[in-house]
TrEMBL record:
Signal recorded as keyword: no
A Pfam family annotated for this UniProt entry: HemN_C
Listed name of the protein: Heme chaperone HemW
NCBIfam families found in the cross-reference section: hemN_rel (TIGR00539)
GO biological process terms, semicolon-separated: porphyrin-containing compound biosynthetic process
Biological classification of the source: Bacteria, Pseudomonadati, Pseudomonadota, Gammaproteobacteria, Alteromonadales
Domain Radical SAM core: 1-233
Family in the record: Belongs to the anaerobic coproporphyrinogen-III oxidase family. HemW subfamily.
Entry function: Probably acts as a heme chaperone, transferring heme to an unknown acceptor. Binds one molecule of heme per monomer, possibly covalently. Binds 1 [4Fe-4S] cluster. The cluster is coordinated with 3 cysteines and an exchangeable S-adenosyl-L-methionine.
Subcellular location: Cytoplasm
Any one of the GO CC terms: cytoplasm
Keywords: 4Fe-4S, Chaperone, Cytoplasm, Heme, Iron, Iron-sulfur, Metal-binding, S-adenosyl-L-methionine
Cofactor: [4Fe-4S] cluster
InterPro entries: Aldolase_TIM (IPR013785), Coproporphyrinogen-III_oxidase (IPR034505), Elp3/MiaA/NifB-like_rSAM (IPR006638), HemN_C (IPR010723), HemW-like (IPR004559), rSAM (IPR007197), rSAM_sf (IPR058240)
Amino acid sequence: MILPPLSLYVHIPWCVQKCPYCDFNSHSQKGEIPETAYVQHLLDDLRQDLYFVQGRKLHSIFIGGGTPSLMSEQAIHDLLAGIEQAIPFTENIEITLEANPGTVEAGRFEGYVRAGVNRISIGVQSMQNDKLKALGRIHDANEAIKAAEQAHLAGLNSFNLDLMHGLPGQSLDDALNDLKTIIELKPKHISWYQLTIEPNTQFHSKPPTLPEDDILWDIQEQGQAMLAKAGYEQYEISGYSQPGYQCQHNLNYWRFGDYLGIGCGAHGKITLPEKECLIRTEKVKHPKGYMDLTKPYIYKRWQVEHSDLAFEFFMNRLRLFEACDKTAFHELTGLPLHQVEAAFEHAIKQGLLQHTAQQWQVTAKGHRYLNNLLELFV
Ligand SMILES: C[S@@+](CC[C@H](N)C(=O)[O-])C[C@H]1O[C@@H](n2cnc3c(N)ncnc32)[C@H](O)[C@@H]1O
Ligand SMILES: C[S@@+](CC[C@H](N)C(=O)[O-])C[C@H]1O[C@@H](n2cnc3c(N)ncnc32)[C@H](O)[C@@H]1O
Ligand code: SF4
């Protein structure tokens, strides 16, 4: 087994209010968030994970949530300084912070950049005010535009806009107009998600009327063509970027790289080559329990069973559009290649995969029927 690049995910669990479609680990917090105490807990949590790190450097950091843009510049500065003290950074480290346009007053992004952030991901969701209202968002389209302008002003070479489609009452034209407006804001990266109704959300208990399947299909096909025409390459199911601006954190995740996870409900995955195994970690989910000094941060830690490894590898790796080196399978899982050859032959016969002597690549059909492809590895 070889050691892949190491990333770090940091979870910030608070939002101004909970959106009715969202099943992320987020809690509405009226008033001040306990950011100073939380940063200390995060750094303490990280120290307890250092056992796994052993001389490695950090390749990317993703501060996600919840709404990390509720944190002050000082808190993000203290957090990043503390992380760097614990684990050195690689020279080109990517440091992303997620922001909600409703929390971004002027000058905020400059502050984050001073603290060390070099990529901001802004949750725009839609550019139509009636849709934003139906989604329970705390901002309007104008504030989303202002947030994107601020990202340019802060000198951020790379920022991402999150947009959703398949929204309640959305027509094909609505969705395409949203994309067109987003493209005009010139982000280097666009995450374009189809709205899904998740269990344990308000939309699940009171479902809104969503567009018919044929409209969803047209949105997908025509939206992808529009993004491609504007120079955005699709490199992952929902990830599009200008060439060279893929999200390094996501890429490492889908390439089956390693990541530590700190903060409420954060997940981690670490390779231990000397033990020929993978460890997964999960931290305590609720902020109250996580910040309770009498309890550990870790909720669960387990070794991935050998029988699950092949599926876990491909479930991540086959989401990416780039080809996969055949050697990566053995290097990252420790399993012999011949174990998956029969599944691959089957997938190639069905037109879901193609291959050369060195690499595998998912075909367009394989991306469309990804679940059928993955079933071959169960
Ligand atoms: C943690 S949020 C981003 C930052 C910030 N909390 C915000 O919403 O502005 C992650 C992103 O996941 C997407 N998302 C969340 N729930 C979703 C759902 N049910 N279906 C599709 N996309 C969803 C949204 O685009 C959202 O921006
Ligand atoms: C889906 S991406 C967001 C994409 C995005 N909008 C951007 O910046 O390009 C969010 C990243 O945070 C990671 N993440 C989210 N919740 C997590 C958790 N609880 N534990 C570990 N990683 C998490 C995901 O794995 C992913 O790499
Ligand atoms: S979508 Fe973003 S702002 Fe809305 S509840 Fe989820 S994490 Fe919070």
